[in-house]
Design goal:
By secondary structure, the chain is α+β, with helices and mostly antiparallel strands. About 50% of the residues lie in helices and about 20% in strands. Strand 6 and strand 7 form a beta hairpin.
């Protein structure tokens, strides 16, 4: 991978003998969530509601321990069950507003870092990948790419286990155009797109994989 000047990405193809694909697009919030998190939903319903139920259980056991000591097992069980249901139901009903709040915070952080809304000029051709953003050009040859993955129509060009340059699914007008792109990448790189293993791990999951690999066995 190397960096060069803004003009290193050509505005037009030099000749018909060097075919390729060139797109200018801006990364959006969901594009970053696809790379940084295992899901676009920052609070997945199952684990979130389950965690709320466990917290409610501990609260109920502490606040109603006197009923257990008094031998009023029936009342104790009712209060514990009611607390668990109320806690889980309350969190479930608040999932929507909490998600919107978290997304807005995440978006503000990305805007401040100039990571979204900025045009990305990206080229994929027989030489590899080259993209320019904020005046910086990054080039990666096919043999230096760590992995190629496809996730729900989005193509991920992994430059390392942590860094991906995506071509979002919205860039392709039809499945036929996506297939042409897929076939050309296969021809140029010598390998096809794999299922989204790294993309589904999220940044934390990939970091854990790296930590486990670094640990002597």
């Amino acid at each position: 991978m190397s960096e060069s000047s803004l003009g290193s990405v050509p505005k037009i193809w030099p000749s018909p003998n060097r075919p390729g694909f060139r797109k200018t697009f801006a990364l959006e919030l969901d594009d970053h969530l696809d790379i940084q998190h295992a899901s676009r939903q920052l609070l997945p319903p199952g684990p979130t509601v389950g965690a709320a139920g466990i917290v409610a259980l501990f609260v109920a056991l502490i606040t109603n321990f006197d009923k257990w000591q008094a031998g009023d097992v029936g009342t104790f069980a009712i209060y514990v069950l009611a607390t668990i249901v109320a806690g889980a139901l309350g969190v479930f009903l608040l999932l929507g507003p909490i998600r919107r709040f978290l997304r807005s915070m995440y978006r503000r952080r990305l805007v401040k870092a100039e990571a979204i809304g900025r045009p990305v000029e990206s080229t994929v051709d027989q030489s590899g990948i080259s993209y320019t953003v904020l005046g910086q050009t990054v080039t990666c040859t096919w043999d230096s790419l760590y992995a190629l993955e496809e996730d729900a129509g989005t193509f991920h060009f992994w430059m390392s286990k942590m860094v991906s340059h995506p071509w979002p699914a919205r860039l392709f007008a039809s499945e036929e155009k996506r297939q042409v792109f897929r076939e050309n990448v296969l021809k140029w790189s010598g390998r096809s797109f794999s299922p989204p293993v790294l993309a589904r791990l999220g940044a934390r999951g990939r970091a854990n994989v790296l930590a486990n690999e670094a640990t002597p066995r």
